[in-house]
């Protein structure tokens, strides 16, 4: 990596590592939430931005990861180091099943089928109350080091650094997968699936593989959210609202950029938190979702390729601009 690129990365890492020394506890919890949703948005960008698959049921994997971790730890009494591999196995199997059953169709038909699978998962966790806790969800007792310091006092610093490490590892895995030979095929499918098939690639198999990788990353984000943010799982995490939020994060940050959706996660979650908090100051902000919608429309109008995508486009134009003659 060249020095010009290494310096911004080093500065970003320094800021992430020093934030626990600067932020109060409640904002530290908000930062953990942002990092986990950044991983979820990153996994969604692997589908919509890299492979060109538009899914309306991505919340299924997020919720499945949260419930798998919660059920393993509370109902089965398994330790965390056993619950996390179970999350990976469940997510891989679920993603392969959904992909094999739905990827035979394309476009809005596929999107509707994925939405149906997510709604089925939502109904299952509500009705299977003896295992999932029904509409009330399921609570878990997380390891003490997640929420306390060495003296036993409440402290989210450990959870914060785990979330940062998870975010960096998730980005590294998705970036390596995107730059790998299968990743090149995913991008070819996004550009022209018919041509990729004509070259001899089994496009359905490659799309299922993309769903499996994306589903595993999303499920681990759900497990992390259950452990480090909510200490439990809720049926709301399998609703279309989660998928819509992730879609907004991806579009705001920049589809297909990988870094953009992570930045979009920070914008969406922090802006929602800030606007909803303004209700305590004035009744004018009781309709804060409307204000958020207006801000979102403004971002789409002035940054049509998202924050990172538009920045890259303008940077390329500046670099390609002919230099004036001497």
Describe this structure in words.
The structure is a single chain. With 326 residues, the chain is an all-alpha fold. It has a domain of 216 residues: Orthogonal Bundle (ABC transporter involved in vitamin B12 uptake, BtuC), CATH 1.10.3470.10. The protein has 15 helices and two strands. It has a two-stranded antiparallel ribbon. The chain is globular. The model has no long low-confidence stretch (mean pLDDT 87).
Report the β-strand fraction as a percent range. under 5%
Q: Report the span from N to C terminus.
A: 33 Å
Rg: 21 Å
Question: What's the total number of strands?
Answer: 2
CATH architecture descriptor of the domain at 23-238 = Orthogonal Bundle
Under CATH, the topology of the domain at 23-238 can be stated as ABC transporter involved in vitamin B12 uptake, BtuC
Main pleated sheet? 2 strands, antiparallel
SSE run: HHHHHHEHHHHHEHHHH
Helix content: over 70%
